[in-house]
Amino acid sequence: MSDFSSTETVDPTISRATRAATEALGVPALVVDDVTVQFGGIVALNHVSFTIEPGTIHALIGPNGAGKSTCFNAITGVYRTRTGSVTFGDAVLTKLPASRIASQGVGRAFQNLALSPSSTVLDNVMLGRYHLTKGGFFSAALRLPWTMREERRHKERAAAICEFLGISQFLHTPAGLLPYGVQKRVDIARALACEPKLLMLDEPAAGMNSAETDNLAELIKDVRDEIGVSIMLVEHDMSLVMGVADHITVLDFGKRIADGVPSEIQQDEAVIRAYLGAEEDEITDEAIEAEIAAENAAAGTGDIAAGEHVGTGTADADDVSSGAGASPVDPESEKTR
Ligand SMILES: Nc1ncnc2c1ncn2[C@@H]1O[C@H](COP(=O)(O)OP(=O)(O)OP(=O)(O)O)[C@@H](O)[C@H]1O
Ligand SMILES: [Mg+2]
Predict the structure, then answer these.
(1) CATH for 16-105+196-302, among 3.30.160.20, 3.40.470.10, 3.40.50.300, 3.30.200.100?
(2) What pLDDT digit, counting tens, does each position of 106-151 carry?
(3) Which of 123, 230, 320, 324 is packed most tightly, with the most Cβ within 10 A?
(4) 278 pLDDT band (50/70/90 cuts)?
(5) Are 243 and 8 in contact (CB under 8 A)?
(6) 325 lines ligand 1 (CB under 6 A)
(7) Longest Cα pair distance anywhere in the chain, in angstroms?
């Protein structure tokens, strides 16, 4: 993960065509200003600031537990902020409940796929257009002509987005039957279906093989270049990050430790230290001894109790449903400070 040197970087200047698309879409900057998020005694984000310029691919990286997903969730209104603000043009996102963030032009794909496996690809993508539909439940149930027309229009748009993402052959296939890489595309299609100006992706390459990751890199660049959206990318895969990002912010222990273009980040000493430190932590003498003891126990030669955990696995703090640690914040009740 710390091998920054062998990867290529993109030209940080955005092409004229992309800039034109970004301007036509009216994409504002996203400004994260002095944001702090706390879970009980844990300061997961500590006075963090950075700006995602319109039409850029902006990566947020850092070792495990650095605060990336917390930042993602603070921007999308899932977690409340203790200090600071997040603004997107005129909208102060930190004052809005999560349910109103999409209508401000912020679309998110999920770190853990949140597709409905038994619904078709088209129906999953249509969910992303929910807030754009005017027809209410009753008019839809009555199948009034104008709601039928509206539904047809939304379906056509959803299908066009699927075509753009190269998944149109699966429109009527239940999402759960598709390979993982395709399901990730469906998730991104759903995020794009809300017609965002900022697309937020949390570890889109997780679980992908290298061919799928290469395809994803092309897709991310195509989405930015052809639609003109800004993209925030939380990602562990350094070759993906260095290959697509225009700008990178690095977090470590909740603090911003670096911010710059990929070539600056690759040479930044604090960043290299943070990643080397993380790798060294993973392979401590204690961990090695524990692993040997576990192997002996499994072979019947050791004295480790059955079921005792060995290793450095951590609970996934992104899995809000896991209940690990402090409970996820109810944006409705917690936003009032
Ligand atoms: N809901 C929560 N309750 C309690 N602590 C949390 C919660 N979410 C995150 N944390 C803690 O906040 C810190 C930052 O976690 P976060 O998930 O943001 O890190 P991350 O950079 O996304 O890590 P990873 O690379 O493993 O996904 C960690 O110490 C984590 O344990
Ligand atoms: Mg995370």
Answers:
(1) 3.40.50.300
(2) 999 876 667 888 899 999 999 888 766 665 555 566 666 667 777 7
(3) 230
(4) low
(5) yes
(6) yes
(7) 75
Q: 307: which residues sit within 8 A by CB, 6+ positions away?
A: none
Residues 6+ apart with CB under 8 A from 314: 64, 65
Take atom 3 of ligand 1 and give the residue whose Cα is closest: 326
**Token representation of residue 188:** 């991104």
Could you tell me the two tokens for 285?
A: 């003498």
Q: Which residue has the tokens 């192997």?
A: 295
Sole residue written with tokens 């050791």:
302
Task: Using most ligand atoms within 8 A of CB, pick from 1, 36, 38, 42 the residue to mutate for ligand 1.
Answer: 42
d(CA 172, CA 121): 6
- 39-72 per-position pLDDT tens digit: 999 999 999 999 999 999 999 999 999 999 999 9
Looking from the CA of residue 67, the nearest atom of ligand 1 is 18
